[in-house]
Amino acid sequence: MRDTPTTTTSHADHRRVKARLAAALDNGRRWTYTLLDPLDDEAMHRQFDRIMSPLVWDLGHIGNFEELWLLRGLGDRSQHDPDLDRIYNPFDNPRWTRADLPLLRRPEATEYAADIRADALRLLDAIDLDPDVPLLADGFVYHMVLQHEAQHQETMLQALDLREDPRPGDADELAAVDDPRLQLYLPATARTVRQPRRVDDTDIVTIAGGPFGFGAMRGVDVPLGAGPAAREAAVAAYDNERPHHLVDVPTFAIDRFPATARRYAAFVADDGYREDRWWSPRGIEWRNETGHTAPQGWVATADGGWRIRRFNRIDELDPRELVEHISFFEAEAFAAWCGGRLPSEQEWEKAAAHDPATGTSRPFPWGDAAPGPALANVDRALWGPSLVGSYPQGASALGVEHLLGDSYEWTTSDFEPYPGYTTFPYPEYSEVFFGGDWKVLRGASWATRRGVARTTFRNWDHPYRRQIFSGVRVAYDVDGVGRPATPRRH
């Protein structure tokens, strides 16, 4: 029996759900084009790195996925073009082959996506969101399509962050260039920071042992007073986040904040990349093979400091900035150097979601409200990670901060199904990845759309990848009085 996401009962409920979905679809598509419109056709069709797709493939794939699930899955529309199913199937076409496919040219891909979207909105207006049909209940399939587009927006940003063109780095100078082909990726020059409060970036929080509710609730189980954001987070959850179940987690400690550039630079300066004792055997192999000696984008300065290259622009690296673009192996070595380890995903979610006062689990660290500018760095609000201590209102009930937004955080957990897992609605999102060489990341990044950011969301990637917006938070085994069991080092 499939895990039915939720049910609503009244016609008025259905109209409200449809109105919210239509607005979200429109908003999501506008966000896609805020990324793509500043690019010329050459950039749209170029493959910046073999591990990333040409951006025009992502655009065509977004349209094809929507055609498959909304128009042909729910409606009676015939295939737009059988060749598109073949070209935009990610499993038949690994990323490094996609530049050689007969892709739709940019105007064609744009028209295709627009055509599909127009029909999808007409279908949404007419369709019955039958609560007894899991795909339709509370608009689950529309949430799936929305998240799919949002996740591709984040993937496209990863690709753009790998672009390396010999261009000047001054934003004002670039903005004044008339030829758009010579301009930097201007959206990223909107990079800004919030002024943080002053904090100790080595502070830790001890989390008492005991059971807590792990994984996404069903929509029908969300309390009526929780509000629409909490309900939508439950409805939108993927199959790999279910079922919600109790997990007993022993007492542990965890950093209140993710690692800062200051702490990570100390690891590098302490020969952290040279000393094998901090690295796993696979990590040593990866480190020696790649030759990496710092996070992606870090540029050493003549005086021994660091600058940061982000979207082809080099800026000063603020030591208070949260680290991103590190692999699992780097995160693991940094944690060992600190005297700790990476958290399991059960530990991470308990720190993020558990409310000891009520015994319940929160959809967002701060409660039931949707992510907003005072709570978390998502939705490209800052075009990069924030400075540590910027979001005190976003703290979890246990006092842990920066859990959603800034950077995904590596965990020790392999990507596996929860007990009682059921594939829904298709195996290619989760099931085919179970048991592979994947490590789970938790949280969300600054590039994540708010509709994807929730405490139960599970991201995953190969342990050797670091093009994703990934950081690290250290956990610790504790002694009898809740202190780290091994000496800490920063």
Automatic annotation (TrEMBL):
Pathway: Amino-acid biosynthesis; ergothioneine biosynthesis
Keyword DNA-binding listed: no
Keywords from the UniProt entry: Iron, Oxidoreductase
Keyword Oxidoreductase attached: yes
Domain Sulfatase-modifying factor enzyme-like residues, every copy: 202-475
Pfam family, one: DinB_2
Domain of life the protein comes from: Bacteria
Coiled coil (residue ranges): none
Domain spans labelled DinB-like: 25-156
Protein name: Gamma-glutamyl hercynylcysteine S-oxide synthase
Species assigned in the record: Euzebya pacifica
